[in-house]
Amino acid sequence: MKNNLPAILGGKPAFPELVQMVRPVLPSFSEMAGDVENILSTGMVTKGRFMREFEQALSVHLGVKHAVAVSSCTSGMMLTHKALELSGDVIVPSFTFMATVSALVWAGLCPIFVDVDRATNNLDPAAAEAAITPQTTAIIAVHQFGNPADIVALEEIANRHSLKLIFDAAHGAGACYQGVPVGKQGTAQIFSLSPTKLLISGEGGIVATNSDDLAAKIRMGREYGNDGNYDSAFAGLNARMPEFNALLGMRSLENLEAAAQHRNETVALFQEVLGRLPGIGFQQVRAGDRHSYRELSITIESDSFGLTRDELALALAAENIDTRKYYQPPIHMQTAYRSYYDGRPLPNTDWLSSHSLSLPMWSNMSTDVSLGICETIQRLHENAPLIHKKVIQ
Q1: Domain residue spans in the chain?
Q2: Closest to 80 in 3D by CA, of 89, 68, 91
Q3: What is the mean pLDDT of residues 56-77?
Q4: What is the pLDDT of residues 265-275, one digit of tens each?
Q5: Element (H, E) at 206
Q6: For 7-25+256-392, CATH number?
Q7: Do residues 175 and 291 touch, judged by C-beta distance below 8 A?
Q8: Domain 29-254: which topology?
Q9: Partners of 189 in the β-ladder
């Protein structure tokens, strides 16, 4: 493969078909057929035993008192903010997916964008504390791409300033903080179970918390804020998880540990091979933590690698290798949210948004595919001057 001309220069693509960013690992129909038949025959398509069993299984897995199933991570965050009666300002990173901030704005809150640590891609605790004012009611941190946030440092800051600490754990299933699954720390952690994740329910989310009061309000909130007497205690949502989704989540949970281990082994191979190339960087994971690698995000420094992030993405596309530029633009530059930006410098956010590139990563990616991607990137590096010349023409 290394001796072939890159596809962008007229050679044959490294892969005959598109190597997709995501390929969800799902159970076979035979594994689910009996339970699906039960759902259909009983007519309990929502609010049934599978949702309750899924919640209980996740509660045990996460080591948390409550794991409340909802329709999505976004609805879970919206209900959490509402149930906690947050007001005013909430500190949040700009280097994150848009839903982290859209849930805040939907709840009538003002996002205060602060910078992330360039090495971990996670919220910088010092930057978060520096942004606290009397109007601040909460801090939202993200386990970015599945890399656990600096939980202890953030907990100390939140406790010192009497703030709620919420984790957007959309990428968190399969991640561990100091040897235990992320989920029980902070005021609440909200997980995504969409098809791009390690733990899949089709669509859905989980609000994990040790607070009895918060859990009760989330359960009421997912039913429009109605506790059953049709007198809404607060304005909630229709955020129930259907039985089929809960069943799919139960089956996926059985394979979560294997998925996380496989992804970490695959990323170790990427790091071994791509780590030999100049200008390629990887997320830093603290000792004792485990990344879920929901995303395999690398950074590209053009001066040493020979190509910019965008040039590499274009060249990989010609090789039938899919990529994503997360997150460009960052939230503080997006049309819907730029009016909230107070102008404070976010140098690491800006740098990452122009240098980060996510490569394909699956829970069952073969060595042949992962090595093929690595060897292709190496070949592009070796032909960088010709590719750069081709792109700028």
Answers
A1: 7-25+256-392, 29-254
A2: 68
A3: 98
A4: 999 999 999 99
A5: strand 205-209
A6: 3.90.1150.10
A7: yes
A8: Aspartate Aminotransferase; domain 2 (3.40.640)
A9: 167, 208
